[in-house]
Amino acid sequence: TLALLLGTLLWAPWRALHGAPLAELSGDHGFQVFLQKNLEFTRKIKGDVAALQRVVCDTFQLCKEEELLLVRQDLGITQAPLEQCHSRTFQAEACFSQIRDGLRVYHGSLATVRELLPGHTGLVETLQLDAANLSSNIQQQMEDLGLATVTYPTEGQGPLPALSSHFHHQVGGFFVLANFQRFLETAYRALRHLTRL
C-alpha cells in the first residue's frame, strides 16, 4: 500500500544530512523524493476529502459554505492554523510542525464525520489513517533532517464543541471537511514550494 511504501522511503539514508540548512537540502535527492511522495499522498487525501464532501452534499443538501457561515459561528468550529506555511518569512521547520499538528487535529475531528456517515466508515477511517501516516512521515523527515520540531498550542483545536442537534452535527461534519480541504490545499502548496527552492 501507499502507506507502507512511504514508510519504507522514510528509512532511506538521509542521516548524513543531519543539521544541514534547508537551502542545501532542497537540491538533495532524498529530500526531493520525500517531497514528491508526500505531494502525491496529499493529493490522494484531498481526493478522499472531496469524495466525502460530495456525500455530505448529496445526503444532507449541505453544499455551500456561505449559506452556513452563521451556523459555523454558533458552533465555534475553527481552522487548524497554517500561517507559517504561507508567510513571507517561510520557515520549513515551522511549516512542517504546523502541518503535522494540524493533521493530528483533523484525524480527531474526522470522528464527527464517521458518526455522520455510517455507510462511509471505511473511507473516513482510511482518511484518518492517511492523515496519521502523513503526520508521521513529516515528523520522521524533520527528525532525519535535524530540523527543530515545534509544537504549536492547539487550544480550541481539540474535539469539536458539543453539537446540540442533528443539524448542528451535519453542519459540523460539513465544516470539518471544508476546513480540512483548505488545510490540505495550503499544505500541498507549501510542499510544492519546497520542491522549487
Q: What's this model, at a glance?
A:
This protein is mostly helical. The protein has a single domain (29-149, 161-195), classed as Growth Hormone, Chain: A. The chain is built from 7 helices and no strands.
Give structural notes.
It holds the Pfam family GCSF. It is found in: Secreted. The protein has helices at 2-9, 22-25, 29-60, 69-75, 92-116, 121-144, 166-195. It is mainly α and 197 residues long. The protein has a single domain (29-149, 161-195), classed as Growth Hormone, Chain: A (Up-down Bundle). The radius of gyration is 17 Å and the shape is elongated. Mean pLDDT is 81; it is low at 1-21 and 155-159.
Please report the total strand number as a whole number: 0
Question: What is the total domain count?
Answer: 1
Tell me roughly what share of residues is in helical segments: 55-70%
The overall average pLDDT, rounded, is 81
Shape, principal axes of CA atoms: elongated
The Rg value, from CA coordinates, equals: 17 Å
What class, by secondary structure content? mainly alpha
Ends distance: 30 Å
- Please write the CATH class name: Mainly Alpha
Low-confidence runs: 1-21, 155-159
Task: Briefly note the CATH topology name.
Answer: Growth Hormone, Chain: A
The proportion of strand residues reads under 5%
CATH-defined architecture: Up-down Bundle
Please give the count of helices. Answer: 7
